[in-house]
């Protein structure tokens, strides 16, 4: 036979229905897998599609090369399986089971169909092992990439949620910061603040650092960049939340805040903002 993988494809295709049922039982026997009728139906469809694509790829003259385009469809299927399982909270082991649970079945099938023909059995068994190992590894890699992407998206969402821009009064914004202020977060802080200035046409922005645990040279630089960006948009900044230890640190580091007004509390900063807008506390009751 010119295609060395055609024999394996023929065996699998001949016993496809039996393999599918046994394979499903193998997968569902894993106690940690989540069970419900909808998922069982999806798993059956995915398994049936995998077997069909697996046979189709093996029939190709290039079926032995996993990097070849004949495996593109099965790679796309494994991507979909891995990504959906990440979203459903499956572990890497549970996800890899989709592929690796098929290995023992195919080993048994090859041995039973080529009984006594060791010259043909050994190459086929090696083919099965090699191909499923590559498919399983690919599944795990996609799972890891998908999980990292989801975690990255969640971190981005948390960063955005942790930097809310609050309108305190007409023309006055507040940006309360909580946690560490690094380069990535500074970019989000700056974008949110500038967008808030544009949306509300604010002339004063209060950056409250009460929730920032420490202020070092790098944090101070990040704050000054944010202040400079706000000034370019026509808004003056006031930094509040300057605790005694933070004040001492800034002085010790020799950080020049560039004439930016600072206050110990957000309330004090708000009073200053009202004063600079020629407003008094009484204006809030009107």
Automatic annotation (TrEMBL):
PANTHER family the record matches: RSBT ANTAGONIST PROTEIN RSBS-RELATED, RSBT CO-ANTAGONIST PROTEIN RSBRC
Official protein name in the record: STAS domain-containing protein
Family matches, as SUPFAM superfamilies: SpoIIaa-like
InterPro entries reported for this sequence: Bact_StressResp_Reg, RsbRD_N_dom, STAS_dom, STAS_dom_sf
Keyword Translocase on entry: no
Keywords: Phosphoprotein
Pfam families: RsbRD_N, STAS
Species of the source: Pigmentiphaga aceris
Sequence intervals crossing the membrane: none
Domain STAS: 162-273
